[in-house]
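$ run holo --ligand "zinc ion" --emit tokens
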Amino acid sequence: MTKRTGYLEVIAGPMFCGKTEELIRQVKRAVIGKKRVQVFKHTLDKRYGSERKLYSHAGITFDSDLVSGAAELLKLVRPDTEIVAIDEAQWFGETLVPVVGKLLEKGYHVLVAGLAMTFDRQPFTPVPALMALSDRVTKLSAVCSICGADAVYHKRVTAKGPKVDPLKADPGFVSKMDASVFQARCRDCYRKK
Ligand SMILES: [Zn+2]
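-- output --
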């Protein structure tokens, strides 16, 4: 086997910007191109029922492996895999950064989708760090739920549910991360109710 060179693409943006659709689109293209692909997501993310599939808000799906953290992900990556895709990377926390580094050293093409910011506009570890060391960043915007402009933020619009530290995500809260709790907002509308 010839030596491969690692490559990292990060697909980042707020909720409802189509990150998972873009990840699935690229994975499906790779599969058509006869590439060997493995797709992972975190056990925290059970929003849409079935655990072994990626589900986008738009209802597009793709089979995935469910892992409890970055160390387990690293163990499950097969030597003959060419592309490692990771959805909702924010649930993995900072341990994902060195694991992605190891995958890149081994020559894998790594595709990571995740939230770059929390609902209170703070950097959401580890996505910003992964963006910094990536070869390519695809930054997507959503559509503002108030005015229809491009939205780079998502805002929590209900006081219901636990006041969660987004860096220590609570599974009960993650399961409620949908349009009844969060809305996409542009810069101008972020402060509106
Ligand atoms: Zn707006």
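-- notes --
The first strand starts at residue 7 and ends at 13.
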